[in-house]
Amino acid sequence: MIPEERREFGAQVAGLRKQRGMTQEELAAAIGRTSSWLSQVERGVQPVNRLDVLRRLADGLGVSLQSLRPDAPSLELVSERGEVDDAANDLDQARLVISGHPAPDVLLAPPQDAVPVSLDDLRSAVDNIWELTHASRYADLSTLIGPLVPRLERSARTAPASDQSEVWLLLSRTYQALSAAFVRQDEPDAAWLSADRAISAAERSGEALHVFASIFRLVQAFVRLKHLDQGEHAAATAVSALRQHISDATARPEALSILGSMHLALALVYARSGNRTGAREEITNARQVAAQLGEDRNDFNLEFGPTNVQIQAVSIAVELGDAGEAIDVGQSIASDDLSVERRARLAMDLGRAYAQRRQTGEALAHLLDAESLAPELIHTHVEARNAIRELILIAGRSASPELKALAERADAQP
Prior knowledge:
The protein has 414 residues and is mainly α. 73% of the residues lie in helices and 0% in strands.
C-alpha cells in the first residue's frame, strides 16, 4: 500500500504542475527526469528523498523548496550524515547503473583468487526481478536492480570457473528484464543498451537460445525507437538462423518459444510500418509455431503459446485499425493463467479497439480493468493515454466522472 504522505506529496506536485499549465513531459524535461518517473511521483509510487532532486522539482514548479517540502532542511542534515539512501528509487537510477563499464574496479585490481558466490541467492534475486517486471511494479524493481547488477557483473568476472557460466546467464536474464522494463516505461535508448548487454552476457554463458531471447528484447527497443528497419533486420536474421537449426521432429520447446516470439516481433514491426500483408503472414507463422508447441509456456519470460499469440493478434489488429477483428479475437481469449502484465495488455488493447469504434462505455470498462491490474502500464503507455484522450474528446461535456478521473490519473486530458 502506498503511504498516505507520498500520495499527498504527489497530489501536491500534480496540482502545482497543472497550475503552471505544464504537461508531465514538459516538467520532467525541465528538471532532467523522465515523464514516467514524474508520473510515479504524482501517484505516490515513487518517493523523492534526494535533496538535489527536491530542489530541481521545486525550481521546475516555480516554488520554494520549503513550500514544496517543509521538512527539506532536516532531509539535508540527514543526507550529510549519510543516513538517507542517496539513490533515486526509479528507472532513472537504473540508467546510471548501466552507464559506463559495469565493473571498473575489477579491471584495475583483479582478485588473485576466485571469489565464492551464492548461486542460490543470485537465482532468487533474478527470479524476483522478473516477477516484478511481469507485474509492472517498476518502483519495486528499481529498488533491487541498483545493487544487483554490479554484484552480478563482479561475480561473473571473479567467481570460480565452475560458476561463471551460470552467473553470466543470470546477468543476461537481468539485463533482459531491465530491457523489457525500459521499453514499457518508454525508455527505448536504455532498453537498447540493456538488450545489447544481455546478448553479450548470454553468449559468454554458452546458452545460445538466451542470445536469441535477448535479440527479441532488442527488437522491442527498435520498435519503440521507430527504427523499424533495424527491428526487421534483427528479427528476420534471427528467424532465418532459428529455422535452419530447428527441425519439426526434434524441436525443443524452448527453441519453438523463441521462434514464435520472433515471428510476433516481426508482425509488430510490419504493423507499425503499415505492411498489413507482412503483419498477417507473421501472425499466421506464429500461430503455426504455437500449434506445434501445443501449450502456453514461459520460456525465457516470453510467455509464448497459443494464448499469447491471440493476445498479440489483438494488438496487431488494433495497430492496423481493425477494431472489429481485435474485439472478436479478444473476447474469445481465456487469459486467467497469464501474468498480470499480459492480462493488462489485453484489456488495454481491447479498450483501444472499442475507442476506435467510438464505444466509450466498453472502452472505459476495459481501460479501467487494465488499470486495476497494472496502473503503471495505463498511466505511462503512450497509446493507452492517446485512447483516453480520444474518449474524452468523443464524450465532450457528457464525459462520465469515471472517465474524467481516469484521464486525470493518466494525465491524459486533451
